[in-house]
Backbone:
């Protein structure tokens, strides 16, 4: 627009063309009175025009009725919340009966500080006129006396956020607007119920699980000992929707981008972590969380998002992968994008994308920590979001990987995705975003190198199946996991898997060709039973001779503590073993592990890593393997007394006994549950050996239905102690003249 045409615009809109609006919270509103050029002398008098005109006295947003239609009735708050491309109705109360032939009434919808019709931030719809030149549609639904019910349908691609509404009466003198009223502000969200929206899901059970479910289960541990923790997504809690919009405002996300689901989740992937952009959460794996909350202590996202928004967008301390994933899941579900948390067991952190994770052993067969730079995480949590990828061929729509744990930069920011799950499975890595990185997390080879006394190394073993062991997410209406590995990769060593690798190589992944290694003919597997922290236990090496000749195996077993990220700590065990194994037989070799050896070295989440390096004596062929063992944590008990009913007191107690011979210091106990209780935190300076604590609270359920109460105990010596209690909350009793009735 040139300056001459700009001058013809109302003064309050002059700045709209020059600014890229990046805030939903800032406003620029039109004046209550906007005059047109003076009426000609032969026209009607001002008094006659005013006498024929009408005034809008109020706007009823019909919050309750509309929220029920738009599947937003679970959001806490007094303002209306609607979804794209679905009609909502409002009632205009006028000072006289509305006449479509005599009166011209418009509705204006504004978002941000620089309203612009060309950018979707300033929408005008006419009431009762055939003219429909707006992307938003309107119609007169009904008229009764001096009231008019109007139906409004936001465009299927409109911006997501909080809109302001003005009713405008237009006459030849100008425009008369209603006053700015925050009570009539309303939110527009993505719409997975509507087939025109890019986040549409066709099954109601999927929408209930991936959009409406407020509580989820996040899976951790190790692939052969999967553990769980409940997570309060709490996307409908008071203030959470505003907090999500604040996150985008703080990240300077242009309003123009906020109608595109792909763009929103890509921006959110960066904004959930603070690295480089002061996003929501500070990632830390240091073990020292004294200046904030330990990642293992959180029970849900609302506490995090509300803290970030209320304290001036200062990053919240601290998070690790499941906290990032849980918080991002709240963000996308709150805005109406279907999302879920996925756990990848044995997830490679391959910053070069070359599909190689290098493990270096020293001349004694122990892991050389100074030379082993790559790592395989016991598990890594990311998100999947469901959407149509408008920028990709149709077959790559559906579930998309989004990872906000800060690992590597993408286009200058620490983020990852969205990248198509279907494209990852097919090895089609040329499409945006970050497909090579995700592919490497699932398909890297673990390459063992052995160094000699001079420091020179050679490859002794390649394990092509260790990484990407299993991918899981929560089942519908269950805390059990659903195995979705086949969504990401074909069966190991299958023809289709080889074809995918060839496709990946054609798309720029380096070829996975190594020196031809001699076949050992012997395989070692490490086994053990479930072990509690503080227990002595027995480790078994099953040495399987697959050849037709007897052999002798000399093996070195190294034990060390390890973070869930694969970063190793102190060694606590080094033992040499020798075994003779008959042809086609398996020989068990046991190793005793003492608690006094490993307990002093434990790091958070209590993982032990055992690495075996062996040689077949007859052929001098090397072989190696490794296994992570997750130690079982002590029990946290939740008990309830009373009958759960909306509006009635309910007593809940959380009990814990310290089973160790050392005190637990600076203990934090959290209790949380959407629809039940806002997060409560109890601090204990210490819990002595053998001592018990009992934390009892009274809660008043706010809504009926299936609810989950979750508890978490955390201190520096003991992380990730959680439990949850599921129960049904009954509707509130309504007593009238001796008869009991029920209501929501």
Residues:
């Amino acid at each position: 627009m040139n300056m001459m045409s700009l001058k013809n615009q109302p003064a309050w809109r002059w700045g709209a063309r020059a600014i890229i609006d990046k805030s939903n919270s800032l406003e620029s509103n039109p004046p209550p009175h906007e005059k047109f050029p003076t009426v000609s002398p032969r026209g009607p008098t001002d008094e006659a025009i005013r006498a024929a005109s009408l005034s809008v006295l109020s706007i009823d947003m019909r919050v309750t009725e509309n929220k029920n239609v738009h599947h937003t009735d679970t959001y806490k708050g007094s303002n209306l919340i609607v979804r794209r491309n679905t009609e909502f109705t409002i009632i205009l109360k006028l000072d006289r009966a509305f006449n479509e032939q005599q009166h011209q009434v418009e509705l204006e919808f504004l978002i941000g500080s620089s309203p612009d019709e060309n950018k979707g931030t300033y929408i005008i719809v006419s009431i009762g006129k055939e003219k429909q030149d707006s992307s938003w549609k309107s119609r007169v639904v009904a008229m009764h006396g001096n009231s008019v019910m109007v139906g409004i349908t936001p465009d299927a691609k409109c911006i997501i956020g909080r809109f302001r509404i003005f009713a405008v009466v237009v006459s030849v003198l100008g425009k008369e607007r209603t006053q700015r009223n925050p009570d009539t502000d309303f939110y527009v969200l993505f719409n997975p119920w509507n087939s025109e929206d890019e986040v549409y899901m066709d099954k109601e059970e999927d929408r209930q699980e991936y959009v409406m479910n407020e509580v989820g289960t996040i899976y951790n541990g190790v692939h052969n000992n999967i553990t769980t923790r409940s997570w309060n997504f709490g996307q409908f809690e008071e203030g959470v929707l505003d907090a999500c919009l604040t996150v985008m405002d703080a990240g300077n996300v242009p309003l123009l981008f906020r109608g595109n689901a792909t763009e929103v989740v890509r921006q959110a992937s960066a904004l959930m972590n603070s690295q480089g952009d002061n996003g929501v959460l500070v990632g830390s794996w240091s073990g020292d969380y004294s200046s904030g909350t330990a990642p293992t202590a959180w029970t849900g996202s609302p506490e995090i998002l509300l803290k970030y928004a209320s304290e001036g967008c200062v990053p919240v301390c601290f998070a690790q992968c499941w906290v990032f994933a849980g918080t991002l899941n709240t963000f996308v579900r709150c805005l109406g994008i279907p999302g879920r948390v996925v756990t990848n067991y044995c997830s490679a952190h391959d910053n070069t994308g070359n599909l190689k994770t290098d493990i270096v052993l020293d001349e004694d067969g122990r892991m050389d920590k100074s030379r082993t730079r790559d790592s395989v995480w016991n598990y890594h949590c990311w998100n999947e979001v469901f959407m149509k990828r408008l920028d990709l061929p149709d077959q790559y729509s559906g579930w998309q990987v989004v990872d906000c744990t800060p690992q590597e930069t993408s286009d200058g920011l620490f983020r990852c995705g969205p990248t198509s799950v279907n494209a990852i499975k097919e090895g089609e890595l040329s499409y945006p975003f970050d497909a090579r990185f995700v592919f490497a997390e699932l398909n890297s080879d673990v390459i063992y190198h052995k160094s000699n006394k001079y420091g020179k190394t050679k490859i002794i073993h390649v394990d092509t199946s260790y990484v990407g062991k299993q991918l899981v997410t929560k089942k519908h209406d269950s805390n059990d996991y659903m195995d979705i590995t086949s969504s990401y990769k074909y069966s190991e060593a299958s023809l289709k898997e080889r074809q995918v690798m060839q496709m990946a190589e054609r798309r720029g992944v380096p070829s996975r060709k190594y020196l031809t290694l001699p076949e050992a003919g012997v395989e070692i597997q490490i086994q053990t039973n479930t072990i509690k922290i503080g227990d002595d236990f027995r480790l078994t090496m099953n040495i399987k001779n697959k050849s037709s000749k007897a052999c002798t195996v000399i093996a070195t077993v190294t034990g060390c503590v390890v973070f869930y990220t694969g970063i190793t700590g102190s060694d606590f065990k080094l033992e040499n073993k020798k075994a003779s194994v008959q042809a086609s037989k398996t020989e068990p070799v046991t190793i005793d592990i003492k608690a006094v050896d490993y307990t002093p070295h434990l790091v958070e989440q209590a993982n032990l890593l055992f690495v075996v390096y062996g040689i077949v004596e007859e052929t001098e062929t090397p072989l190696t393997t490794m296994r992570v063992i997750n130690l079982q944590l002590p029990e946290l008990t939740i008990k309830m007394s009373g009958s759960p009913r909306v509006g009635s007191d309910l007593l809940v107690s959380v009990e814990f006994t310290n089973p160790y011979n050392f005190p637990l210091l600076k203990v934090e106990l959290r209790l949380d549950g959407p629809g039940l209780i806002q997060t409560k935190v109890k601090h204990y300076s210490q819990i002595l050996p053998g001592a018990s604590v009992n934390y009892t609270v009274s809660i008043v359920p706010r809504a009926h239905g299936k609810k989950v109460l979750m508890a978490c105990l955390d201190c520096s010596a003991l992380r990730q102690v959680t439990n949850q209690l599921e129960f049904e909350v009954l509707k509130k009793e309504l007593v009238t003249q001796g008869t009991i009735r029920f209501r929501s």
